[in-house]
Design goal:
Distance between the termini of chain A: 38 Å
Structural class of chain B: mainly beta
Shape of chain A: globular
Number of strands of chain A: 11
Number of helices of chain A: 0
Order of helices and strands of chain A: EEEEEEEEEEE
Strand content of chain A: over 45%
Largest sheet of chain B: 7 strands, mixed
Number of strands of chain B: 11
Oligomer: heterodimer
Radius of gyration of chain B: 13 Å
Shape of chain B: globular
Radius of gyration of chain A: 13 Å
Distance between the termini of chain B: 36 Å
Number of helices of chain B: 0
Chain lengths: 111, 114
């Protein structure tokens, strides 16, 4: 399966700290996307990074992509209680019509 | 704009019953998708549509049918529900190919089949 795998499965930090979560995948991709899901809600798109990009920023979010290692990381700086959610990576395999979602990282930010 | 809405929010079915889940979007998106989310697993694509009147199979299509008679609506049908179809179902839409661009998700429908 092309499904990405996030690491760690769960992460608990204090408000104001940085949170880093990782995603690994198995085959070549066109792009990789990160989504956030608050409890009981739908997914919200955060960032899309294409295979020819190495780093992207959006506000307090920083995403890196290393295609040689088939991995990506999502960094949330200066975390807030409102960042508490599950974070999913999704990969678009070259030539496929699917997004393949990972199993997610559950982030808890303690006020 | 309401974005992507799903009806109903919750449903309990008995094995063998049928039902239809409705997804509606008001963003004039061409592409629409149905996913299921199970505990400990990522979202898996059931079916998708690249435009009005078109549908295609995703990763886990068995036991489901879909229709896209109007651009703004995408229906997911279960003809004979099974306990294995207990899941949370999400609809999504995108302006362009959602595997190359961002997808917008609805709030989900929690379905329990007993």
């Amino acid at each position: 399966s092309q499904q990405g795998e996030e690491d760690p499965q769960a992460l608990s930090i204090q408000e104001g700290e940085n949170a880093t979560m990782n995603c690994s995948y198995k085959t070549s991709i066109n792009n990789l996307q990160w989504y956030r899901q608050n409890s009981g809600r739908g997914l919200v798109h955060l960032i899309l990074i294409r295979s020819n990009e190495r780093e992207k920023h959006s506000g307090r979010l920083r995403v890196t992509l290393d295609t040689s290692k088939k991995s990506s990381s999502l960094l949330i700086t200066a975390s807030r209680a409102a960042d508490t959610a599950s974070y999913f990576c999704a990969t678009a395999k070259t030539g496929a019509n699917n997004l393949f979602f990972g199993t997610g990282t559950r982030l808890t930010v303690i006020p | 704009n309401a974005g992507v809405t799903q009806t109903p929010k919750f449903r309990v079915l008995k094995t063998g019953q049928s039902m239809t889940l409705l997804c509606a979007q008001d963003m004039n998106h061409e592409y629409m998708y149905w996913y299921r989310q199970d505990p400990g697993m990522g979202l898996r694509l059931i079916h998708y549509s690249v435009g009005e009147g078109t549908t295609a199979k995703g990763e886990v299509p068995d036991g489901y049918n879909v229709s896209r008679l109007k651009k703004q609506n995408f229906l997911l049908g279960l003809e004979s529900a099974a306990p294995s179809q207990t899941s949370v179902y999400f609809c999504a839409s995108s302006y362009r190919r959602g595997w190359d661009y961002e997808q917008y998700f609805g709030p989900g429908t929690r379905l329990t089949v007993t």
